[in-house]
């Protein structure tokens, strides 16, 4: 049987492994950490650093295709892997999404709307951008940010110097503040043959910079829903993409604005586990394995709630709730801000 290689051993890797196993695949993860969520459910684990080129070559030799659960894989590791096996989604999706500036340039190049943005290299460039964009604005590191980390809101131009200091010398971009009414995301998929399918958009609520809930159906007009799905398809096609992608959108009166894209399964797609015959994890495995995409049409209303840190104390109660499906990641320690699991609460179909 075929073996799916997965870079990264977190909860996304874990749920990808479970989905792969259900389709009869074996999985092999590459993850420097030891007792990680995916290691509990994968067949093989290369516990080596991404700088270990021999280990990467062995890993590639042990799998049929390489995919990943996070986008910050070092370029040098990808170079080694690419010589031996297909990487899906491909290098271009990673190149574009590893850097917020490259990503914004790609999106605007496609004719899609993003927040106004500027490359920030020093204090004068930040001051000039603030002058042009006005406040509030958000200064973000170009790389490695997640869960709202590496970003700072600037409410007044006088805060420029302090905000720049928080970037600790890392390359940054300034984004104009988008006055959105709410946030939604599209989880899209594209197969090896170019077939595209999107899940119903979900409505996302963040708390302290971290996704708190995703609800389907999202508050969207028919036109907005069509728009959201079509723009996701445009992104997938432009990248000749293979796999599942998350596209985060701001909903405004003037239309949809793309916040960011993630070249992988996405936290805001976890509702599909209880809302669709084929969820985002199976859809991703199907795509990277060269299978036809599955039926991702939504048959239920779902609210996905992330269980973060102390939320784990509520697990015994949630376990007794009618209509609640629990997904726990097997992480040993519940630290503040750490994603420990999620619960999908299923309602009637609409
Ligand atoms: P993720 O965990 O989704 O990868 P991230 O750290 O990459 O998060 P962003 O998605 O850029 O961060 O921003 C996190 C949240 O902050 C957004 O979902 C949105 O609520 C708010 N936000 C970010 N950029 C803007 C903006 N330009 N205007 C208004 N709100 C914003
Ligand atoms: Mg992000
Ligand atoms: Mg985001």
Automatic annotation (TrEMBL):
Keywords per UniProt:
ATP-binding, Ligase, Lyase, Nucleotide-binding, Purine biosynthesis
Q: Which pathway does it operate in?
A: Purine metabolism; IMP biosynthesis via de novo pathway; 5-amino-1-(5-phospho-D-ribosyl)imidazole-4-carboxylate from 5-amino-1-(5-phospho-D-ribosyl)imidazole (N5-CAIR route): step 1/2
Top enzyme class, one word, equals ligase
Quote one Gene Ontology molecular function term. Answer: 5-(carboxyamino)imidazole ribonucleotide synthase activity
What PROSITE patterns does the entry give?
A: ATP_GRASP
EC number(s) on file: 6.3.4.18
Superkingdom of this protein's organism: Bacteria
Sites where the protein binds ATP? 100, 140, 145-151, 175-178, 183, 206, 259-260
Assembly, in brief, is:
Homodimer.
Q: What does the similarity note say?
A: Belongs to the PurK/PurT family.
- Which NCBIfam families does this UniProt record tie to the protein? PRK06019.1-1, PRK06019.1-2, PRK06019.1-5, purK
Q: By what name is this protein known?
A: N5-carboxyaminoimidazole ribonucleotide synthase
